[in-house]
Design goal:
By secondary structure, the chain is an alpha+beta fold. The chain folds into 3 domains: 97 residues, 2-Layer Sandwich (Pseudouridine synthase), CATH 3.30.2350.10; 133 residues, 2-Layer Sandwich (Pseudouridine synthase), CATH 3.30.2350.10; 57 residues, PUA domain (Archaeosine Trna-guanine Transglycosylase, Chain: A, domain 4, Roll), CATH 2.30.130. Helix content is 22%, strand content 34%. It is built from 8 helices and 19 strands. Strands 3, 4, 5, 6, 9, 12, 13, 14 and 15 form a 9-stranded mixed β-sheet that branches. Helix 1 runs parallel beside helix 6. The longest helix has 12 residues. The protein is globular and about 70 Å long. The termini are close together.
């Protein structure tokens, strides 16, 4: 974090925020941005207001890697109620249908859950941020409109029942980007014959951050009162978002050309795909893309003043 003058700091890094219930992801983002007095900030995938848990926030130069986290797998713990459907498929919506929940077996639960594992098609809910002819679906829904939506393929890597009573289940879900948990629960409820809606949702992980230590807004505010350096200690380095990617070290001359936007030949670089780039001092300088001729071209260069 570099000092920019009275009251100003040039901050870059990744914050793992524990978003509270009842707050939109954008409102949480703006609260973090104010606490850090950051010039740039973005999050890597919205959570519904009802939901809590991991909201990965990228500050400053870290916004250059936020798009890669949008593509990442997610991990959720959700509570759902059988027998009741709502307009939004969660507890924030109005009840539109109720059915008595009759007896069912553990075998029937497993059969239904197994049918939703792997690649499945989902129709985005009307109460979502997907756009239709330039309008957000949730705005159309609030106006009482419903429009046709194209199904989208998602992947459910894990779907495990961890607790249940007669009409309430707690599920552990690991899934690909773009998965609507509300839609998944509603579809599972229909497959059971009773309907269902989400009553609680917590995001536990966003790859590569699996079950990480998070901080809530109250805790962050306490650090803010101690000063910018205390806040900075809560940030993770930018390259932590890319753990597991191949990495290569680049000599001084190649660093110069990469920062000038030119592709270079790097011994030991991967033969395809992307890689993390580090200078001779092991300082992260950005992301490279391997070209067909084997050279590495700069894709995202990180510019942080020392």
């Amino acid at each position: 974090m570099t000092h920019k003058g009275v009251g100003q700091w040039d901050v870059s890094g990744i914050l793992l925020l524990d978003k509270p219930a009842g707050m939109t992801s954008n409102r949480a983002l703006q609260a973090v941005k104010r606490l850090f007095n950051a010039r740039k900030a973005g999050h890597t995938g919205s959570l519904d207001p009802l939901a809590t848990g991991l909201l990965v926030i990228c500050l400053g130069e870290a916004t250059k890697v936020s798009g890669y986290l949008l593509e990442a797998d997610k991990h959720y713990r959700t509570t759902c109620r059988l027998g009741v459907k709502t307009t939004t498929a969660d507890a924030d919506g109005d009840i539109i249908e109720s059915r008595p929940v009759g007896p069912y077996s553990a075998t029937s639960i497993q059969r239904v859950l197994q049918s939703f594992c792997g690649r499945i098609a989902q129709i985005p809910p009307m109460y979502s941020a997907v756009k239709h002819e330039g309008q957000r679906l949730y705005k159309l829904a609030r106006a009482g409109m419903e429009v046709a939506r194209e199904p989208r393929e998602v992947i459910i890597h894990k779907l495990e029942l961890v607790q249940r009573s007669e009409d309430t289940w707690v599920l552990d879900i690991k899934c690909s980007k773009g998965t609507y948990v509300r839609t998944l629960i509603e579809d599972i409820g229909e497959a059971m014959g009773y309907g269902a809606h989400v009553t609680g949702l917590r995001r536990l992980g966003v790859a590569p951050f699996e079950a990480p230590e998070m901080i809530d807004l109250d805790g962050l505010a306490r650090y803010a009162r101690q000063g910018p350096e205390a806040l900075a200690r809560r940030l993770l380095p930018i390259d932590s978002a890319l753990a597991g990617w191949p990495s290569v070290c680049v000599d001084e001359a190649s660093v110069f050309y990469l920062k000038a936007g030119q592709a270079v030949q790097i011994p030991g670089a991967p033969t395809q795909g992307k890689a993390r780039l580090y200078d001779q001092y092991r300082k992260f300088i950005g992301l490279g893309r391997v070209l067909d001729d084997g050279r590495v071209a700069p894709e995202r260069i990180i510019r942080i003043r020392s």
